[in-house]
Design brief:
Blueprint: E1 12-15, H1 19-30, E2 36-39, H2 48-51, H3 82-95, E3 102-103, E4 108-114, E5 119-124, E6 129-132, E7 134-137, E8 159-162, E9 176-180, H4 184-193, E10 199-203, E11 210-211, H5 220-225, H6 229-247, H7 258-274, H8 279-285, E12 297-298, H9 302-306, E13 311-314, E14 318-322, E15 325-328, E16 333-335, E17 338-341, E18 354-356, H10 363-367, E19 385-387, H11 398-417, E20 421-426, H12 428-442, H13 469-478, E21 484-490, E22 494-497, H14 499-502, H15 512-521
Parallel strand pairs: 1-2, 1-7, 2-3, 4-18, 7-19, 8-17, 9-10, 9-17, 10-13, 11-12
Antiparallel strand pairs: 4-5, 5-6, 14-15, 15-16, 20-21, 21-22
Helix pairs in contact: 1-11, 11-13
Length: about 525
């Protein structure tokens, strides 16, 4: 048996150069791990913020939070738009010297673990074969476009594209444009194209709860104040603490809580205010499920845009597509010139890469439709494989989660960097225990009773985190060495179980203290 070569710097592959991949690269460099490659399938870094260039694209989270804590920025708006955010990400990548590590237009299709050699073999779309000691999936959750399977779609004679692959060569002036979907993306697209298009027809299968975002330009005084990184960090910390209270046990998404009732009341008031003179639209846009059942839509101009004379809301799903238009679920055909599919993304983790772990089992086979991982990062049976923005980590301050995940992953890789260790993976008993608690804490949330991307086919909530970013960050500090199973090189015999780790199996005695602390954190409020 051959183990990993004895080196102070393991070779690491990072798949994706968006927020996650950039954070992972920076943290690796800071830890002295310099042998890493970031593979990005797009022409430049930026991830979804490179791909999503549709009109009106901007963030829902305040700019101060939707950025790295270690790299504040002099933002122009309370909620940054796509071009400025992409500039930020590219600037961060350049400042921290990631350029030599990034390979663009490089799509990883497969990562296969060798138990004998204790490394991964990566297969790229262009035919290249590369080998690495560890792999970090930074492809994210909502990055792979979901294209609908409507009958006749391939025969539509006009221009058609997904919002994440927007065709800016198509002139919408005076055209009849169909936008299918009413999620966060469509809520940004419709107000942006309505002043240009001749007609906009918005197809809505089911409405979502909408709240005003209060987005605006920062004043000159506010922008000057942003020159103080200390001030930004204070504001960021206050925002996180406020969110922590609102998100404890998913209070805002749990029917009957004061937070949930207040949010739904605000959303209903917003509907009544905007559509005071349009009772027809008021009925169409009001959801029939509790607030939080789907991802709430934060926008200031979506509802007002629906009252325009050239905007029509069709409260029915698409049944099929004809060469000249769309047939809705009621059987009515709508003639259109351009078809915009705002149909979201595949709510699957690592959907663009096949990952094969110990015993030749693929990650998707092991999950069997129900993704789960310790902290959304590590899955048992996949040594040296780490995920960012993995199962049950969605919601809240995402970038804060990503930074905590990057720190956690680097801590594990540093175990390999010490030279003798060949692999690190999570103990199955720890992962099972952790995920059972997550499901207990998610029980009763609004997610259960609505049609959303949060659930697996069995109804298990597989995407959402249970609390706020602060608690998540604390857990990434607690659940480290005692939760991991480490293998070392034994001279003359190849990799062997860590004696200290072996003492923890099958029930991890060493984690008892950590588990007690976590259970104390998880007591009923």
């Amino acid at each position: 048996m051959m183990g990993r070569r004895n080196t102070a710097s393991p070779r690491v592959a990072i798949i994706g150069a968006g927020f996650s991949g950039i954070a992972a690269g920076i943290k690796l460099k800071q830890a002295g791990v310099n042998e890493f490659t970031i593979y990005e399938k797009s022409p430049n870094v930026g991830g979804v913020w490179w791909d999503n260039r549709y009109p009106g694209a901007e963030v829902d989270t305040p700019s101060v939070l939707y950025s790295y804590s270690f790299k504040p920025w002099r933002w122009s708006r309370t909620h940054v738009r796509q071009a400025e955010l992409l500039e930020y990400l590219q600037s961060v990548a350049e400042e921290y010297g990631l350029g030599p590590h990034v390979q663009t237009r490089s799509e990883v299709e497969r990562a296969v673990w060798s138990e004998e050699r204790q490394h991964y073999t990566l297969q790229l779309k262009d035919g290249r074969i590369e080998r690495f000691d560890a792999v970090i999936s930074a492809v994210g959750l909502l990055s792979d476009p979901r294209y609908p399977d409507w009958p006749g779609l391939e025969h539509f004679a006009g221009a058609k594209f997904h919002t994440s692959r927007w065709d800016h060569g198509v002139d919408l002036s005076g055209k009849t444009v169909a936008v299918v979907g009413t999620g966060s993306t469509a809520a940004q697209v419709v107000p942006s194209i309505a002043p240009v298009a001749g007609q906009v027809k918005l197809f809505q299968r089911e409405p979502g709860w909408v709240l005003p975002k209060a987005a605006r330009e920062f004043t000159a005084t506010e922008r000057v104040a942003m020159n103080s990184h200390a001030a930004q960090r204070i504001v960021r910390s206050l925002m996180l603490m406020r969110r922590e209270k609102q998100q404890y046990r998913n209070a805002a998404w749990r029917p009957g809580t004061p937070e949930n009732q207040a949010a739904e009341a605000s959303a209903r008031d917003y509907i009544d205010t905007v559509f005071a003179d349009r009772p027809d639209l008021r009925e169409i846009v009001t959801p029939k499920y509790p607030f939080g059942g789907k991802r709430p839509v934060l926008t200031d101009d979506f509802y007002p845009s629906l009252t325009r004379e050239n905007v029509t809301v069709v409260p029915r799903a698409v049944s099929r597509v004809t060469p000249r238009g769309i047939v809705d679920a009621g059987g009515q055909e709508h003639q259109i010139d351009v078809l915009v599919m705002s149909t979201g993304f595949k709510s699957e983790f690592v959907s663009t890469v096949e990952v094969v772990g110990s015993g030749g089992r693929s990650l998707n086979d092991v999950w069997n439709g129900e993704p789960q991982a310790l902290l959304g990062v590590m899955t048992s049976g996949f040594p040296n494989f780490f995920m960012m923005y993995g199962p049950n980590t969605n919601g809240g301050a995402i970038v804060t989660h990503l930074e905590a995940q990057a720190d956690y992953i680097v801590a594990a890789i540093k175990v390999l960097a010490r030279g003798a260790a060949t692999s690190v993976e999570v103990r199955d008993s720890v992962s099972q225990w952790f995920n059972s608690i997550i499901q207990q804490r998610l029980a009763g949330a609004s997610f259960e009773g609505a049609n959303n991307y949060y659930k697996s086919g069995t109804g298990r909530i597989v995407t959402q985190w249970t609390d706020g970013a602060i608690l998540y960050s604390v857990l990434t500090k607690l659940l480290r060495r005692a939760a991991w199973k480490v293998r070392y090189i034994v001279p003359g015999s190849g990799p062997a179980s860590d004696p200290a780790s072996a003492a923890l199996a099958p029930e991890p005695v060493g984690i008892a203290g950590d588990q007690a602390e976590l259970e104390q954190l998880y007591v009923e409020s």
